Structures are given as structure tokens and as C-alpha cells.
Amino acid sequence: MRKTARNDADTKERRRGRRFQFLYAAVFTTILVVNAGGFAISEAMRRMGPLPLGENLSYSPLVLDRDGRLLRPFTTEEGYWRLPAKPEEVDRRFLAMLIAYEDRRFYAHYGVDPVAMFRAAWQFAWHGRIVSGGSTITMQVARLLEPRPERTLGAKFAEMIRAVQLESRLSKDEILSLYLALAPYGGNLEGTRAAALAYFGKEPRHLSAAEAALLVALPQAPETRRPDRFPKTARAARDRVLRLLMGKGLINEDQVLAAEAEPAPDGRQLFPLHAAHLAERLVKQDRVAKKRINIVETTTISRPLQEQLETLARERAVALGGKISVAIIALDNATGEVRAHVGGVGYFDKGRAGQIDLALALRSPGSTLKPFIYGLAFEDGLAHPETLVDDRPMRFGIYRPENFDEAFQGTVTMRRALQQSLNMPAVLLLNALGPNRLIARMTNAGAAPKLPADAAPGLAVGLGGAGVKLTDLATLYLALAREGEALPIIWRKQDRATAAAPRRLFDKAAAWQVGDVLIDAPPPLNALPGQIAYKTGTSYGYRDAWAVGYDGANTVAVWVGRPDNEPVSNLIGRTAAAPILFDAFSRIAEKRTPLPPAPEGVLFARTSDLPPALQRFRPNSLPEIASSGPGDAPLVISFPPNGARVDVSDDTSDVGLALKAMGGAPPFTWFADGLPIVIGEARRETWWESPGKGFARLSVIDAQGHTASVQVRLD
Fold first, then answer.
1. What span, in angstroms and rounded, lies between the C-alpha atoms of 270 and 346?
2. For position 622, what pLDDT does the model report?
3. Is residue 16 part of a domain?
């Protein structure tokens, strides 16, 4: 018995020893396997090189509006539509469907899902073919970042390693963002946002259940399920996703039935194409400069207004018929920022030269430059809105201008002459001022007209004898709206910091007087008067119709014509362009913002109450052709002399500036920068009280209408 008991004890001890040996062997073997596996993984990681994180991905250049809304995307240089997207920019239902269908433990695993891998292996062993790949979303991202042509176990092993690496470096949202940007959707479409825009014509923020299911299904077989080539296959794949998700409890049967009844897309839609010409110009500049890998331009455009004005331009162009196109520019008076830029109608319409930015084309401005002739005359004290002027046939050398209707109205006020766009009074004033001076003012304001080659500025400039861009006219009228201060046009938000300093087109009084005249110009048919200060223009031969105007908040410029410069019968600014201008303002805002009040120094008077020299404009009183009366000395300003630098006291309430005239016939009227400072002075010497500091243009007019001017600097 004792021997048996001892034998049993020995047996138990041997068994215990063997168990420990087996355990030791198993632990040792596991350690060897883990170390070998770790070494293999480390060696594989070393051979694979640095981990790609998507930092060098090339995305589609994007042009956005002022609030970040997409105006126009472009393909990458390789020809792909690849638009970045973040999870918060995509419909939540789509994300829930994607994760439930592709990787339901996405937020729990670390790149590789062992359960999914085991299931895939079991299905492969049972069915003898691959039923599911077991790939997580992270593994798919790894494959998209580092494509491998072969689909082998080695490639799968590499994806698993990369997935674990990605999880250690990136957040779940960052990994999802890469998937949303890179997932294939057929052809040259990559990413959920590109697919939503191409197949549904919408951003992926708000998707129906059917749309979301289709976007989940397509990346599984993007080429064989392309809706634009295989719509039936795409729809079947969508419906399978819906049924599978219903089985997982993500959606109910009623939702599935409603989604299945929804038609699937059978083609691709155009990507957004708003402000197409501006977008193309900005992206081309960036690509030439090669300053950035991924271009994102944020403009000052307002997409809702841009869409409305594009629709307006297209409707009016079609109604006008033929190959007519329309261009529109809308500016914010406060900042000079472009709110809308319609460069033409039908970007892909060859008949209308849709890809040419007609807002930047040189065209004849017709009568749209006349307000600036009057503004110069008002500033110089040569005329007042109530000054009388003769509208009658006249000849200037070989130049003999006529009115648009080939009739003359006799004696009219400057106000009526500008409102009725009479040609003769404008030419008379320009002859007095000199066309060089008009061009210099326009150029200084940032809107240089283009003269014919080797041509000197002539009087015809005032009636459209120079090339002007629509953007130039918008700049000039913006200056009128801003009380004579010219701002550069701002296209992008980043341009604000580097924009040129404002320049003065006219003094405040002259700019206000021009606006006060233009706001009472006869409106087009069925439009309310007194709402917009505006001017129309029609070029010679009915090639260009213009309308440019402003209220207290916005400035809008409109051009209508054929891009090929062919004439169009009865294409007139008042009937073709002005209705578009007024309609554009109604789409900007329901109510008009009034013009600013009159600045100090504006002379309000009837014609009979004006100084004698301002009651009637006489051509023989012009500086270039003026002659003194018989026996009178020419009128000149003897003090201060032209170009002088004069010290004035800081205490301007006690000390002013002496003014002296020689020649001419009293009484004298003196002006400073176009504003009257002394009226009806009988003496040749007078006193200017309270002069400011800076440059000033002093003018004097005598009883016979003779004038003299000097430019001085007051310190």
C-alpha cells in the first residue's frame, strides 16, 4: 500500500513537472514567435519607409465666396476631382451608414479589427473564395495613401501595419477626413464631396437616405457601379446597402421603401461654375506663381447675389437674341469689394464667346464718361448744375459732334444737359478743360482709358472715343458714390491689406453735384425715379450698350453687346442696359440706400441767383481760347503764384490767405477746389478766411467770364 501511494505521488510529481515544462516551452515559444513577429514587423516597417499621412496630397483648387461657399472647383493637375472634406461637413446619416456598413467597430479598434479579420478568414475557408476582406476604414485609407497594384497576403499585411501606424499618429476624425477625400467613386472622381457634387449636384451636408446609401456602395466597385455608365448596377448596389442597414437596425422598412423608390442618378452634373471668369483668373495666377500646393482662394463675392445676377444676365441676353452677351459688376461702396462679377453669359456657349471675361474687355464707353467732364467743370468753378449752356450746332476744327437724336434743344441748364446726355454741352466743357486732363483724372483714379495707337487725346474721348473696361467704369462711378474718393477694386479678402491708398477723383462738392444731377435722370420704363444715380451710354454703330449707377451702398455697372464687336440694330443703353441695372439693384436689396447729404460749401442757387460768370457758360470764356475785352489786360492771379508754397497760421480763425488778381473786369468770384470762397468782390485784392492745409487749386472768374487758376501748397 505504501509502495502504491509512493508510486502515485511520483506519478503526480512527474505529471506536474511535464506540465511546467510544457508551460515553459509554450511561453518560450510564444516569446520567440512574438519576437520573431516583432522583428518581422519592424523589418517590414523599415522596408516600407516613412509613413504617408496625406500631407503632400494634391487637392482640387477651390475658389470660394466671402462666406466659404464653393464658387468653382478645378481638377488637379493630374486631372482628378479631389475635394477635401471633414466629417462635420458631411451628412451625419451618411457617416453612420458608412461606419455600420464598412467598419462598425471603427471607434473601438486600433487600425485592425481582429473580429472582422477572423470572420473574413473563416468565410474564405468555408466558401473557398473571398467573401469579405476584413479591411477597416483605416486599412482602406492606408491603401489609398499608398496604393499597391497586387492584392496579396503580403499587401494585406502591409496595409495592417500602416493602419496601426496611422491610428498612432492621427485621430479618428483625421482618418475619416482622408477617407472622405480619397475614396474612389468612378472615373476621375475621388472623395465624397466630389461624388455628391457630380452625381447629385449638391454638397454632402444634406443627403437623402438613398443618396447616402449610394455613396456608401460605390467605393466597393467604383468602375463597375458608376451611375453615369451602369445606372442599373449602381441602383442595385444602393438597394443592397439599404437592406443590409435595415437588418442592422440603422433604418426602418418605411425609410428603405421610400429610398428605393427614389430614382438613382444616371449621369454626372456640372460642378459649380459661379464667377467662372474671376475664378479662372485667380487660379491661373496661383498656378503660374506656384506659391502653394493646394490653392484655396477666398473672394469677396456673395454667392447668392452672384447666382441671381448670373440668372438675370442669362435671361436678358436670351431675350435680346442673337449672339448678345451681358456683363455685370457689383461693388460695395464702403470697401470697394466686388459682390458679384458676371463676365459673360454661358461659359460653354461658343456663340457668345462665353469663356472671355467681357468685364475686362476694352469697349467704347459711349456717353458714360460725360459725368466726369461735368465733375471737372464743377470742381474748377467753370460751371454749376444750374448754369445755362447752348445746345446748338458747332464745329471744333474738323470735328462736328451731333446729339444722338440729331436734334438740338437750344439753351438748357447743365443739369438738363447731363440728364438728357446732350453731346454739344459735354464737348464744350471738355474743350474748356482739355481731354488730357480728363484722361489724367481717370488714370489717377485707377481707370486708364486706352486710345488708338499713336492717337493724341481729342474731344471725341468724351463721347466714347477711347477703350474702357467695365471694371474701369465701375471704379469711376464708385468714386462718385464715395464723394469723389477712388478706391481700388478688391477681389479677394487677402487683397485688403495690400490695396493701394484711396485717391481723389473730384472734391466732395463736385462729386455730390454730379450725383444730385444723375439721381434725377429719367429712369427706364416701369422703374421708379429718384432711386439710383445712373448714366447710360451707347457706342457708335450700336455695338455697346452701357448703364452704370449707384445708391448709398452699392455701385453696379452693366454692359450689353456682342463679343465679336458686331453692331446690333437699336442696341441702346437706355433700353437694353438700364433695365438690367435697375433689376440688379432690386436683387441686391429691396430698399435703396439714399445718397449721402450735401457736403459743406455746395452752392445752392437758381440760375438767376448765381454769380454772373456762372449764370451762363460762354465758349469764348474758356482759358484756351479766351481773350480779354478791348483795352483790358488778361486776367491772371498775381498772388499766390502758381506752384507756390505758402505758410498759413495754425490759428486759421485769425489768419487767412491774401488773394490778388490782375487784369480782367470786376467783380470777381474766387474758388478753392471748385467751391466758392468769395463772391462778387469788386476789389482785385481779397482775403480767404480759414484755408486748410495741403494742395489747393485757386480759380477766379471776372465779370466777362474770363478765368485764371493756380495750384498752390498750403503749410
1. 13
2. 41
3. yes
**Measured distance CA(703)–CA(64) in Å, rounded:** 61
Give residue 231's pLDDT: 95
Judgement on whether residues 91 and 154 belong to the same structural domain of the protein: yes
Residue with the bigger pLDDT between 522 and 681: it is 522
Q: How far apart are the C-alpha atoms of 507 and 158, rounded to whole Å?
A: 73
Residue 308 is assigned to a structural domain of this protein: no
697, 709 in Cβ contact below 8 A?
yes
DSSP string, 459-525: GGGGGT-SBB-HHHHHHHHHHHHTTTEE---B-BGGGGTTPPPPEESS-HHHHHHHHHHHTTSPPPT
Q: Where are the alpha helices (DSSP H) in 268-342?
A: 276-289, 303-320
The one-letter code for the residue type at 205 is: R
Residue 326 domain-assigned (yes or no): no
Find residue 675's DSSP bridge partners: 672
CATH number at residue 654: 2.60.40.10
Residues taking part in catalysis? 102, 367
Radius of gyration of the chain (CA): 39
Q: Both 488 and 403 in a single domain?
A: yes
Contact 268, 214 (CB under 8 A): no
Residue-level pLDDT at 327: 98
408, 529: one domain: yes
Q: Over 50: is that where the pLDDT of 37 sits?
A: no
Q: Do residues 253 and 390 share a domain?
A: no
Residue 505 and residue 409 in one domain: yes
Q: How many other CB atoms sit within 10 Å of the CB of residue 547?
A: 28
382 and 235 housed in the same domain? no
The string of DSSP letters for 678-702 reads: EEEE-SSEEEE-S--SEEEEEEEE-
User: How many domains are there within the chain?
Assistant: 4
Instruction: Say whether both 385 and 527 belong to one domain.
Output: yes
Name the one residue in this structure whose C-alpha cell is 476604414: 137
Looking at residue 117, which CATH number applies to its domain? 1.10.3810.10
pTM for the complete prediction? 0.79
| 534 contacts 559 by C-beta, under 8 angstroms | no
C-alpha cell at 463: 463721347
Any idea what DSSP says for residue 367?
A: G
Task: Report the share of the chain in percent with pLDDT over 70.
Answer: 86
Is 266 part of a structural domain of the chain? no
Which residues on neighbouring strands pair with residue 696, listed in sequence order? 712
Do 238 and 374 fall into the same domain? no
Provide the CATH number for the domain around residue 531.
3.40.710.10
pLDDT tens per residue across span 235-288: 999 999 999 999 999 999 999 999 999 999 999 999 999 999 999 999 999 888
Cα–Cα distance measured from residue 147 to residue 141, given in angstroms and rounded to the nearest whole number? 10
Contact 331/474 with Cβ under 8 angstroms?
yes
Domain that holds residue 8: 1-49
Residue bearing cell 469697349:
363
